[in-house]
């Protein structure tokens, strides 16, 4: 499935947001997911089905100091 993730085209073998985060090997508790301009709560990732051409932003928090 063709998706736009963080501004780049990606062909992804996933059916929901949870699988997208897993495919990118991100720590779920450190990621915020936005789909077509709307933040999706982590509890809803598995139930959010992907559609061709969706715009997804994966924002990962990084500690520092």
Account of the 3D structure:
- It is a single chain.
- With 65 residues, this protein is mostly beta strands.
- The chain has a single domain, classed as Beta-grasp domain (Ubiquitin-like (UB roll), Roll), CATH 3.10.20.30.
- It is built from one helix and five strands, in the order ββαβββ.
- The chain has a five-stranded mixed sheet, with no helix packed on it.
- A hairpin with a 2-residue loop joins strand 1 and strand 2.
- The longest helix is centred in the N-terminal third of the chain and has 7 residues.
- It is globular, with a radius of gyration of 11 Å.
- The mean pLDDT is 95.
* CATH fold description: Ubiquitin-like (UB roll)
The major β-sheet equals: 5 strands, mixed
CATH class: Alpha Beta
Distance separating the two termini: 39 Å
CATH architecture: Roll
Per CATH, the superfamily is Beta-grasp domain
Q: Give a count of the beta strands, DSSP E runs of length 2 or more.
A: 5
What are its keywords?
65 residues; mainly beta; Ubiquitin-like (UB roll); 1 helix; 11% helix; 34% strand; Thiamine biosynthesis protein ThiS; Thi_S; Mopterin_synth/thiamin_S_b; Beta-grasp_dom_sf
Layout of strands and helices, then pairs:
Elements: E1 2-5, E2 8-11, H1 17-23, E3 31-35, E4 38-40, E5 55-60
Parallel strand pairs: 1-5
Antiparallel strand pairs: 1-2, 3-4, 3-5
Give a short synopsis of this structure.
With 65 residues, the chain is mainly beta.
């Amino acid at each position: 499935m063709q998706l736009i993730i963080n501004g780049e085209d990606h062909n992804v073998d996933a059916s929901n947001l949870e699988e997208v985060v897993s495919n990118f090997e991100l720590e779920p508790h450190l990621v915020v997911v936005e789909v077509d301009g709307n933040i999706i709560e982590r509890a809803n990732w598995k139930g959010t089905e992907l559609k061709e051409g969706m715009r997804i932003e994966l924002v990962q928090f990084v500690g520092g100091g």
